[in-house]
Amino acid sequence: MARVEIYTTPTCPYCLAAKSLLTRKGVSFEETDVSRDPQIRIAMTERAGGRRSVPQIFIDGQHIGGSDELHALEHEGKLDGLLAAA
């Protein structure tokens, strides 16, 4: 199974939707809350090519994007392949 990382904040509905999709698929993920440490948000922004919004999702180090992109991959039938690629 691929390594999934997700940068979130506690009150973000898009973060909750992305985590819910991953949980429904039985995927474990590493969650990093960026709300309390500006340095972690800066690191996330650099990794995500300048994107500051949450969630930011990485699968095996590859930047996927946010919740919309994650759900689009699922809708297109491509998410399972990415998650199993490891």
Automatic annotation (TrEMBL):
Q: Pinpoint the Glutaredoxin domain residues.
A: 4-64
Keyword set for this entry? Answer: Cytoplasm, Disulfide bond, Electron transport, Redox-active center, Transport
PROSITE patterns per the UniProt record, alphabetical: GLUTAREDOXIN_1, GLUTAREDOXIN_2
Got a GO cellular component term for this one?
A: cytoplasm
The source's superkingdom equals Bacteria
What Gene3D superfamilies has UniProt attached to this entry?
Answer: Glutaredoxin
What NCBIfam families does the annotation carry? GRX_bact
**What task does this protein carry out?**
Has a glutathione-disulfide oxidoreductase activity in the presence of NADPH and glutathione reductase. Reduces low molecular weight disulfides and proteins.
Q: What is this protein called?
A: Glutaredoxin
